[in-house]
Design goal:
The structure is a single chain. The chain contains 15 helices and no strands. It is mostly helical. It has a domain of 69 residues: Alpha Horseshoe (Serine Threonine Protein Phosphatase 5, Tetratricopeptide repeat). Helix 13 runs antiparallel to helix 14. It is elongated, with a radius of gyration of 27 Å. The chain starts with a helix and ends in a 26-residue tail after the last helix. The C terminus is likely disordered.
């Protein structure tokens, strides 16, 4: 009987010790998770306190963990966002040397060369390098499409845009580049299909309606062109090029009053109402939507 009681007490003690150890492990895991640096956490500091504080936040973590490749990548993203291209490239190279996700780090380098330095050929080449590590990386195809469009290589741009939309059918930016490149190639049915997809996914995109109007005007479908130009004017508040294109479509339809009114409206509209010709891209850069840069 006494032996049984001792065994029961021993089992209870062992169970209590195991429970205590499990609790300690759980608490340590929770502490580690709370201290972990993620991009959303860096971005929260950036939005709340500005770039210097966010940079100091990452620098302080790097002093404690000087071989943390992810931290170098985060600092590269911060520096890219601030326009410090040289420092961003150095940090991206350090992240690559330490083995952090090659495709993301190479893509960030691509965006520095293209968007900060205007070296679109280098952006296209580095985006291709990123794709050699991950052929399913939609953001790299998107950066490649952007660079190829800037270089005037519209056929290759259309191919890169098709790769984006094949991987991510709801990618507005992918369809926007498909619209731009198909229009530049003279593939009007392809441009129309891409433009319709853009306005379906992003109904307030006035530039997409304007480009659709241009496509319809080139096909002599002037009523459809006027409809799309009108939508672009309504959504944008009125831009000179939108009014002028609608004026031309109205004149082609024989509506001279509409044409005259729109020419006058173009003169009266704000001088900053120019279109960029390129889809707006997030300044945050590479990996902003990536599953890897968490």
């Amino acid at each position: 009987m006494l032996r049984t009681i001792k065994l029961l007490l021993l089992c209870a003690a062992l169970a209590a010790a195991a429970a205590g150890a499990a609790l300690l492990v759980k608490r340590r895991a929770q502490q580690a998770q709370a201290q972990a640096v993620t991009w959303p956490r860096v971005e929260a500091v950036l939005l709340a306190d500005g770039y210097p504080k966010a940079l100091s936040f990452v620098d302080e973590r790097l002093r404690r963990h000087p071989n943390d490749a992810l931290l170098y990548y985060y600092r590269a993203r911060l520096r890219y966002g601030s326009g410090d291209g040289g420092a961003a490239l150095a940090d991206a190279d350090r992240a690559i040397a330490l083995g952090y996700a090659q495709e993301i780090s190479h893509l960030l380098k691509a965006l520095v060369h293209g968007r900060l330095y205007g070296d679109w050929r280098r952006q296209a080449d580095l985006a291709s390098k990123a794709l050699s590590f991950d052929p399913t990386y939609a953001d790299a195809y998107l950066a490649r499409a952007e660079a190829l469009y800037a270089l005037g290589e519209h056929k290759a741009c259309a191919g890169a845009a098709a790769a984006v939309t094949g991987l991510e059918p709801d990618s507005v930016e992918g369809w926007e580049f498909a619209l731009l490149c198909r229009e530049a190639l003279g593939d009007l049915p392809g441009a129309e299909a891409a433009g319709l997809k853009v306005v379906d996914l992003k109904p307030n995109d006035h530039e997409a309606f304007w480009r659709l109007g241009r496509v319809y005007a080139e096909r002599s479908l002037y009523r459809q062109a006027i409809k799309n130009f009108s939508e672009a004017i309504l959504l944008s508040g009125g831009r000179p090029d939108y009014y002028l294109d609608r004026a031309a479509a109205c004149a082609a339809e024989g509506d001279l009053a509409c044409a005259a009114q729109d020419r006058a409206a173009a003169l009266d509209s704000a001088p900053d109402g120019e279109t960029s010709g390129v889809p707006a891209r997030p300044a945050a850069g590479a990996g902003a939507r990536s599953r890897r840069a968490k």
